Amino acid sequence: MEAARAVDGARQFFTRAFDFGYSRSVDETARLWLADSVLKDVVRIMRRFKPHVVVSVFSGTSRDGHGQHHLAGLLAGRAFEAAGDPTRFPELQSEEGLDPWTPLKLYRSSRFDANSTTLQLATGELDPRSGRSYNQIAMESRSQHRSQDMGRLQPIGPAWARLRLDQDRTRPGDGQSGQGIFAGIDRDESWLTRLADSVRNTLSASRLHEAAVPLARALARASTGGSDPERRRLLEQAVAVAAGLVIDGRTTIGTIVPGQQFAVTVQLYNAGPYQVNPDVVAVIAPPGWRVELAGGTVPRVEPGGELTAQFTITLPPDAEPTQPYFLQRPLVGALYDWSTAEPQVRGLPFQPPPVRTRITATVLGADLTLEREITYQYNDQAFGEIRRPLRVVPEIDVKLSPDRIVWPSGGEQFKTLSVTVTSNGSTSVAGEVGLEADGWRTPPAEPFVLQQQGESQVFQFRLARADGIENAQVQVRAVVRTDDGRHFERGVVSIEYPHVRPTSRVMAAVSEVRVAPIQLPAVRWVGYVRGAADRVPEALLQIGLQVELLDAHAVESADLSRFDAIVIGSRAYETDTALVQHNHRLLEYVRKGGCLIVQYQQYQFVRDQYAPYPLTIARPHDRITDETVPVTVLQPDHPALTVPNGIGSDDWQGWPQERGLYFAGTWDAAYTPLLEMSDPGEQPIRGGLLVASFGEGTYVYTGLSFFRALPAGVPGAYRLFLNLIGLSQRAVQ
Known about the structure:
Elements: H1 2-8, H2 26-33, H3 35-49, E1 53-56, H4 67-82, H5 91-96, E2 105-109, E3 119-122, H6 134-142, E4 160-168, H7 191-202, H8 212-224, H9 229-243, E5 245-251, E6 255-256, E7 261-270, E8 276-284, E9 290-295, E10 306-314, E11 356-363, E12 366-373, E13 375-380, E14 384-389, E15 391-392, E16 396-401, E17 404-408, E18 414-423, E19 429-437, E20 446-450, E21 456-464, E22 472-482, E23 487-488, E24 490-495, E25 503-508, E26 510-516, E27 526-529, H10 536-543, E28 547-549, H11 552-557, E29 565-568, H12 572-575, H13 577-581, H14 583-591, E30 595-599, H15 603-607, E31 615-616, E32 622-624, E33 632-633, E34 660-663, E35 666-667, E36 671-673, E37 675-676, E38 689-694, E39 697-702, H16 706-709, H17 715-725
Parallel strand pairs: 1-2, 5-13, 6-15, 17-26, 27-28, 27-29, 29-30, 30-39
Antiparallel strand pairs: 2-4, 3-4, 5-7, 7-10, 8-11, 9-10, 11-12, 13-14, 16-18, 18-21, 19-20, 19-22, 22-23, 22-26, 24-25, 31-35, 32-34, 33-37, 36-38, 38-39
């Protein structure tokens, strides 16, 4: 979303709603999201942003499909009514200073109901600043949603957005004439808008500095007239751009630890023709951080000149690691808890950066304040200058792997856990690292010494399973205790992609251990073709199977007959071209006695007929969104449900988010459906687990969400999946 807004220039806001997964039902969504809480969040943004027009993408009816989409459409209408009502959410006014605001028009998209259209927007028109159509900009913006497979072409030519006027508070004869989206709404005819029109009509890129004079006068007038803070901020930016003022704030380190001191450089460059008088050059930091000016301020900056100031910043010993405000507290059901965040931050994508430079200066008789984030600046030999956000991290970073263990109660007595200890500080540190687990005996702690920043040590601990335990859940913690009496038990994970800002997440060094009665099949080797964002191979490895990942070369030419079973990861036919090109080798492997388990795939899989017998996937695809619905066994004596684990009702407990998706809709008689299930109020479906004999081997297609349940440590999912692997005719007898 952040990357999309960087393309289209819009401002993004959020509610507390956490993405708990697809839902068919608006009632389920309202129950999990606490609809009135989310409504308050929407009203908060309406009162802060003060829109005259609200446009809802969704209709607020069952036509919206997803329960979340349906609720979003409903809340748009409810927020339109509530935003201007002082009796609704009065605490927004008393606690956050947000006065009621009454929007005037509510439109809804009529994309799927053309007959209801009352307004068409010509999105094929060109944006004069970029030379591209608004539709092209929208398609580039949509393409930033990488995790949602939203990539789109950017065609030229006519394009339209269709809207339906749902509510209208304007009166005939009021406001602007015509049929546009702002028709009937009074245009602000203040001195400021008249000035903006005048400057806009005479603005020239080659004479941009000429606009600084009227803009500075406007800023001076706005400063004495109680102008809206947002307008003043925009005026300050306009004056700075027109006058050629550029500010920068940078440091030469990217991570800092509690108690550390570091240097910051602040620069003001006057590239314009006007003298600038800096009044205040400051660094803004969180409470408790000590900021000291080391020198460099000057009373004025002449045209072509610059000001460079040096600061030192010292963190307090208890400075918290950097992470988004909405992750600082645990979820409350399916809502983020931002109760401790500052009111002005709630609803923003992220809180303001921890360290910013702020320069207050006078130019052309107007006072303006400019801010910029202080960032870590470094040179990459290939890409040149790189800027990254400044992050506070623990002095000692502790990570425990794996983060989840499913432990067969009759299996091996020991499991190995790895603790990685990394120094983020600049001085030597020594101590002990060990494991803690309530009620379990843990191995002795190990000594460590880290001499310099960035140095890591990895420790292997063999944890013994307590005797006689059939079912148990225990949390294992990795703890570092230093010789000077401090302790550390958290690490920082950096979420990084090329198109978005790096984001830190603080994670406790814990492993959730689940002991359960699980039997492993008698197989030697399992091959695995990894799918999209697929962590199933690691889940199978940690439970004790011998798993080998099959890369493109292996799929193309390896001897597949040495595998007792081969598993295809979810959506692998979309992500692995070798799998598509050499699918015939996998079918031949099955025909000669192998066992192939194909997890859910999308429409390409059935369109190009990669399965040995015909099957289809409906549009929209069959899925079970309620992870708690009962499951009916259709073939209770089938080996997939009996060997080596007998599958019962308890095995369907604890599945996360959903039962499954992309179930087969129709299938050849060669397949045997093993399960039946249905969402509340929906027809039963049977395409979630199909098994077929092909030649001498076994072929399985399953839409069950093993890709979620196995990494989540659900014992029943392991028991069933291991049974499927055990269908191999090559299993050790």
